[in-house]
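To the wet lab folks,

You asked to see what we're planning to order before we commit. Fair enough. Below is the target structure as tokens, and below that is the sequence we designed to fit it. If anything looks off to you, flag it before the synthesis order goes out.
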């Protein structure tokens, strides 16, 4: 789904609600590969703990090539400890983390779609 204007966003709202509900209701049974987060990494060393830092470490442990500016894919296994798997190794995920992520995405969508012109 892609919307280039507020009117287009409003038109796809019912479809977006269906997608959100599908994932919220079926999150526990979803294919883990559908939950991969893709980010372009800006650096190889992070000063704070975060998902991207853990993803870089996961790639390095596997001996996968990394350079700043490269896009990586990862799945969050445990958000409290920032444990992630490289996308190709993902076998499980932190359900609570992805529920919050879906909730935040829906909040942003609905906020924008409810705005006045």
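Sequence we intend to order:
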């Amino acid at each position: 789904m892609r919307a280039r204007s507020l009117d287009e966003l409003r038109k796809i709202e019912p479809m977006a609600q269906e997608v959100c509900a599908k994932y919220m209701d079926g999150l526990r049974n979803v294919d883990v590969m559908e939950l991969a987060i893709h980010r372009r990494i800006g650096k190889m060393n992070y000063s704070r703990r975060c998902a991207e830092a853990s993803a870089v470490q996961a790639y390095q442990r596997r001996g996968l090539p990394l350079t700043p500016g490269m896009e990586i894919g990862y799945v969050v296994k445990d958000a409290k400890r920032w444990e992630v798997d490289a996308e190709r190794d993902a076998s499980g995920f932190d359900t609570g983390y992805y529920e919050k992520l879906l909730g935040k995405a829906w909040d942003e969508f609905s906020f924008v779609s409810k705005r006045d012109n």
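Structural context that might help your review: Strands lie at 37-40, 71-78, 83-86. Residues 6-112 form a domain with the Topoisomerase I; Chain A, domain 4 fold (CATH 1.10.132.60).

Thanks,
Computational group
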